[in-house]
Amino acid sequence: MAVSTKLNDEELAVAVRARDKELYAEIILRYETKLAHYLRKYIRSGDELDDVLQETFIKAYRNLFDFDENRRFSPWIYRIAHNEAINHLKKYRKEIISIEPEELEIVDSKLNLAEKVDGVLAKEKIERALSQLKNKYRDPLVLYFFEQKSYEEISDILHLPISTVGVLIMRGKEILKKYLI
Amino acid sequence: MVEKNDVANKVMEKIKGGSVKLRSKYVFILEKLSANGALVLVVALAALFFCLVIFYLKTSDNLAYLSFGRRGFNPFMQSFPYLLCGAFVGLIGAGVYIFKKSATGFQYPVKYVITALVVVVVAVGALLAYIDVGERFERRVFEKRDFGGRMFRPFLRSGLDERAGGIAGRVVQVREGGALIQTPRGEETVDLTKLENSLSENLSDGMFIVAVGDRRGKLFLARAARIITADEMPMIGRGVNRRFGPIPSPRCGKSNLGF
After folding, report:
1. Which of residues 87-146 of B touch A (CB under 8 A)?
2. Are residues B94 and B207 in the same domain?
3. Where among B122, B157, B192 does a domain terminate?
4. Interchain CB distance below 8 Å, B16 and A58
5. How many domains is chain A built from?
């Protein structure tokens, strides 16, 4: 396992499919928390979240040969997680987006709302506002705000041109501001 | 919520147990090759259809009707190659879809993909038109009874179909107040007594004319007509030749089609 920790994600993926499937545990270790954090935006129930997370890792493993080692691994597995989350929501219901208390500050700072909103932004208010956004605005905003992804990574995850990602984030922010002010 | 690492344990158990396996790399290679092959096929077909649209407009009677002004609008619409144009647009749409679904296609905005695809298709289509692929296709479609000919026939057939408001063909018999003409569908009688314009020269056998007006049963009542050369609408000329032979046969006596 010591060798595996020295490999980057892309090398690790290549190693898993070439020689040692047990190395996949290291990939799970690296992405379990990150993907759970991302999926929690869409799925509140802990059990359902674990199911979707498990399905994400299984799907990623099955399709490991589809991963192009010349590209980054992170957007590739995030895309699988994103698709799984969307499929889950389609199958069951649309939930209100859930954000952590510490993420309130991110929204506050990125939208520059501090002075315009009365008092501290209510967690519920932001969650409701995010949930009311159309998916095409919400998905890039979630990745940009809470997963700290770059435009390029969001482009890879959502399969959208980078310029479109920029436009959607900008418009999403404007719509979100209108909801919140 | 289950304990941390429980997901990892469950997934690794399934992998080690063999219930979850890597899909073969050949499956993905095959998928990519199929997608690329489909894209090439769609682009090639789109180029061919573009070439056929150009060919149709250039060689059929379609555009000639516009020279009659408002009166020519109906036959122009009737003879327009809707199926060819529809297939062309559909193939461009399919090409854009396949490209956008490819591994890196999503990076490019749709408008750029459409523009690039149209430029490529138009360039290749123009090249095909330049080397007379359209004419070869027309021959195959109307002269051969094989699968390719049958498959493409519906796309070009409207070039030779009957139009309610227009007619084009070769004069085989000039009569008082009209003429008997050969069209790709058969012989038809054209009444020229109600012509609102005058013909540039007197009609004679072997001339080609195009006219707009109204169809009254077997008789076509021309309101406006124009003498043309066979080169102006070679698709009609070839259609007539295929049906009646290249040289109009000498005719005697009255036709049973009127006058």
Report:
1. 103, 106-109
2. no
3. B157
4. no
5. 2
Domain boundary among B157, B184, B203: B157
What is the band of B249 on the pLDDT scale with cuts at 50, 70, 90?
A: very low
The two tokens of residue B225 are 């007509």
- Decide which of A126 and B247 is more confident: A126
Q: Which of A32-41, B21-30, B158-167, B242-251 has the lowest mean pLDDT?
A: B242-251
Alpha helices by DSSP H, listed for chain A, are 2-6, 9-18, 24-39, 46-62, 73-91, 103-111, 123-132, 135-145, 151-158, 162-180
Is A23 within the bounds of a domain? yes
Nearest CA in chain B to A47: B1
Asked, for residue B259, whether it belongs to a domain, the answer is no
The structure's pTM equals 0.79
Question: Among candidates B161, B157, B120, B163, which has minimal Cα distance to B137?
Answer: B157
Contact B6 A50 (CB under 8 A): yes
Q: What is the mean pLDDT of chain A?
A: 85
Per-residue pLDDT tens digits for A131-161: 888 889 999 999 998 888 999 999 999 999 9
Domain hosting residue B47, numbered range: 26-157
Domain edge (last residue) among A91, A113, A131: A91
Domain boundaries, position A140? 103-180
Domain end: A68, A91, A114, which one?
Answer: A91
Name every chain A residue with its beta carbon within 8 A of the beta carbon of B22: 17, 21, 61-62, 64-65
The DSSP code sequence of chain B is -PPTTHHHHHHHHHHHHTSS-PPPHHHHHHHHHHHHHHHHHHHHHHHHHHHHHHHHHHHSSTGGGGGGGGGGHHHHHHTS-HHHHHHHHHHHHHHHHHHHHSTTGGGS-HHHHHHHHHHHHHHHHHHHHHTTHHHHHHHHHHH--SHHHHHHHHHHHTTTS--SSEEEEEEEEEETTEEEEEETTEEEEEE-TT-SS--SS---TT-EEEEEEEEETTEEEEEEEEEE-GGGSHHHHHHHHHHH-SSPPP--S--TT--
Please state the rounded mean pLDDT for residues B69-82. 93
- For chain A, state the CA radius of gyration: 17
Query: A87 and A8, same structural domain?
Result: yes
